[in-house]
Amino acid sequence: MTASENVAQASPATPFTPAPTTPHYWADACKHLMRKDRVMKRLIPQFGDARLASRGDAFSTLARSIVGQQISVKAAQSVWERFAALPERMTPAHVLRLKVDDMRAAGLSARKVDYLVDLALHFEQGQLHVKDWSGMEDDAIIAELVAIRGIGRWTAEMFLIFHLMRPNVLPLDDVGLLKGISRNYFSGEPVSRSDAREVAEAWKPWCSVATWYIWRSLDPLPVVY
């Protein structure tokens, strides 16, 4: 049985638009943040030329996010490598041709197999406006993504930051962001989403960049989502 068995024939896959390696706005954002925020003024110089980087195409980025849910980074990488070796290419059409048993043998749960199939179908059947994303508002893209099984708001926001490189995303559901704000702004005292939103007022319109540096303050190794 293939992953796409009993599914109506899909239209050709939507072509992907490669994302830039790093954001063009990074230097301007850093200047703004260092001028407006005392913590950013201290943090940003600590990390030299390191900056946000895109992992690759949209489908692979979202597939990785599903594979990595609720398991350690090390385990996620291992499962991803086994899964990624199955299709001839990591595209929606090729994933839909995979056998469920092979996907399970790669370490994927039955639920994650279902999620990956649903993701592939959304791309393959043109339910996502991939070509239009560059001109769409963040919330509109999030609404499209959360309609996919296994993708919630946090995953959609990570996609906005790490794939589309949107400059002003504030992922208030992110544990690392709240922990970093607590450590850097509140001497380790617990912070609420409201506290984080208040701190981030000074970051606008570069909340994604500030968030990236907050993450760096917890783990110096750059995040690649």
UniProtKB/TrEMBL annotation:
Pfam families, A to Z: HhH-GPD
Any single GO CC term annotated in Swiss-Prot or TrEMBL for this entry: protein-DNA complex
InterPro entries, per the entry: Alkylbase_DNA_Glycosylase/TA (IPR051912), DNA_glycosylase (IPR011257), HhH-GPD_domain (IPR003265)
Domain HhH-GPD, residue spans: 67-219
Annotated Gene3D superfamilies: 1.10.1670.40, Hypothetical protein, domain 2 (1.10.340.30)
Keyword Ligase: no
One GO MF term: alkylated DNA binding
The keyword DNA repair is assigned to this record: yes
Signal peptide limits: none
GO aspect biological process, one term: DNA alkylation repair
Keywords: DNA damage, DNA repair
Domain of life: Bacteria
EC number: 3.2.2.21
Reaction catalysed by this enzyme: Hydrolysis of alkylated DNA, releasing 3-methyladenine, 3-methylguanine, 7-methylguanine and 7-methyladenine
Family that this chain belongs to: Belongs to the alkylbase DNA glycosidase AlkA family.
Record's protein name: DNA-3-methyladenine glycosylase II
Source organism (scientific name): Extensimonas vulgaris
